[in-house]
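#data-curation
PF: Archiving a pair of folding outputs for the training set. Convention for this channel: one message per protein, sequence first, structure tokens after, nothing in between. First:
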Amino acid sequence: MRWKKRGLIFEPPGKIGWIASHAAVPIALHLGGDRFRIYFSGRDESKRAQVGYIEIDINAPTEILAFSQQPVLSFGAPGNFDDAGAMADWIVNHEDRLYLFYTGWNRGVSVPFRNSIGVAVSGDSGRSFEKLHAGPILDRSPHDSCFVASGCVLFDRGRWKSWYISGLRWEPEGERLKHYYHIKYAESPDGINWKRNGTVAIDFKSSDEYAISRPCVVRDRDGFKMWYSFRGEAYRIGYAESHDGVKWERKDQEAGIDVSESGWDSEMVEYAYVFTHGDRTFMLYNGNGYGKTGIGLAILDKDN
């Protein structure tokens, strides 16, 4: 693969209450024709994540057609699993309902934070979402000791399938704690009640790695493809393939996208979201600062 970068398509304005900074973890929803709604997570002045969107014409992606002045999903009540932030992970259109799977944030005491996964649904075509439950649908378990987050969810052949971040441990590094997490796999009959047995989908390939995040899984006639973010020193976008969605082979050298020589994505690239429209394949992604510099777009080069 080789991706042709189209550049930065949205930079956080920093003047609206729910988005004082960041436009992280983008997700594309096709609205019809060439129009797409791009959901992302901004941070308010207290650094709490909330979900909003922009709308673009995919052929002129830097021209913003619509912008949500208010978040479509906000953080929860004090004491809930998402009281310090709600970050969008994935959207599934199933039986005429939009399901938004999202990561809830709690501030930690012994560690900086704890994450869990919740779900919300939309009754107005994605202009707003209502949480199905006050509590999470995926949380710590015997197989996920520290936290879970960033679930990619597909409804595939009658089963709900998820690839998600599993927090393994925190280790001291100087005066701070360093988190270790990779990607695991789960299944569900209804998208709410999930069965986990500790199956690892994407694991570390060297001792330099400590974080593998934001899985993006696509199924085609050849099997399953996954894009994800991995880091030692800084995030890069990785790539893997699987015949069954459970056992994966990392092929990071085939990802086809890397940092630029300068500019908004010169230090890191991460949080890829891959989708098709017509005969073209697109990638939304973040650059420097985990979404602080905004959202970029790339197109797959069909000649390679």
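PF: Second:
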Amino acid sequence: MRGSSLAYPPVLDRLRPFLVTYASARRVEDFPEDVLALLGPANRRPQHLNLGLMVLDPDGKVLRQATPYVRPPAFQFDPEAQGKDFLRQVDDLLAGLTLPAAPKGKAALALPDVAGKEPLAGVRVYLTFGANRLNHYRTPTVEAVKTTKELRQALRYPTEATTWKATALWPWLEQIYPPAIMDGKGGFDRIEGELTFKPAGRQGDTRWALVEGDVAFALDNMTKIAYTGRLSVAVEYGADSDEAVAVRGVCECVFPKHNPQGQVVERIRMTAAIESRPR
């Protein structure tokens, strides 16, 4: 749920007594099972769900639910104005209910992470954006991505330079898209390109390899947004193991921003940083 009115702090304060869980995914089917168990009683599971609110009692019975009106153009793309209206809708949803006491204090901000003690259990993908006309995407996006068995195998130390298809890094690359534009099925028509994977020397007991190349992205949304990025990733290894233990990389893109008529009105810089948990 990238780019929502939940970024307006008073909204989170209002919801704090109720927020026991949340989920963010391209498709409802990608939600964790415990979240899907909540969507079922609310008859939400089969629907495309951009943003939904549900109030449950302690036994899990759905008391009320609402699909908030969230339309950035109606508020001149002003996140504070939209946030205030969203707060009004939350107040309407909760009106007349006996509310639990809000917990004291505020939870510390924590970045998403991937569970696992093994080296390179997962990575974080950080998205930041350059200045643009309507000042979209002011809040950075952070996604946590688990390292799959296939990705771990692909990243084993190379004895010589090899060439990959960009799809070898699909779990990382499919996170590199701007917030709030997934009006299609929530994916890509294609991610393609050729990447070079090669040894990059040794420093003490650490060996390095580099992944480099151009990647072409095409979303499955209505305007078929397409853009190209230059990817560079440094992969770290121990002295005696071919298993990757850490990665750090960057992908620089410029994507076209369309108006409702499908015309390109500006091009916005998007930078993706890919980094594993510090060891």
